[in-house]
Amino acid sequence: MGDRYNIHSQLEHLQSKYIGTGHADTTKWDWMTNQHRDTYASYLGHFDMLNHLSLVENESKARVRFNIMEKMLQPCGPPPKRPED
């Protein structure tokens, strides 16, 4: 029984420490927004991936970097309306 409580408390600690891990009240929109932002951040952080994207899109690296930064603002569109409690 003690192991079960320990695993649960570790999960709660991870969820409070890292936003992207979610929690019980995480909506689908929040989850997808985190996933998209993580992906875009990875593209910006890996120089070779940015080179590949700029080559595929036939754009300069600066333009691709700018476009990705713009997409990070609202990658999944505006947030949905939440019902009032």
Keywords:
4 helices, elongated, Splicing_factor_3B_subunit_5, 85 residues, mainly alpha
Shape field: elongated
Give the low-confidence spans: none
What count of helical segments does DSSP give? 4
- The portion of residues forming beta strands comes to under 5%
Give the SSE string: HHHH
Description:
This protein has 85 residues and is an all-alpha fold. The chain is 66% helix and 0% strand. It has four helices and no strands. Helix 2 (28-45) packs antiparallel against helix 4 (61-71) and helix 3 crosses helix 4. The longest helix has 18 residues, at 28-45. The protein is elongated and about 55 Å long.
In short:
With 85 residues, the chain is mainly alpha-helical. Helix content is 66%, strand content 0%.
Which helices and strands, and how do they pair?
Blueprint: H1 2-17, H2 28-45, H3 47-57, H4 61-71
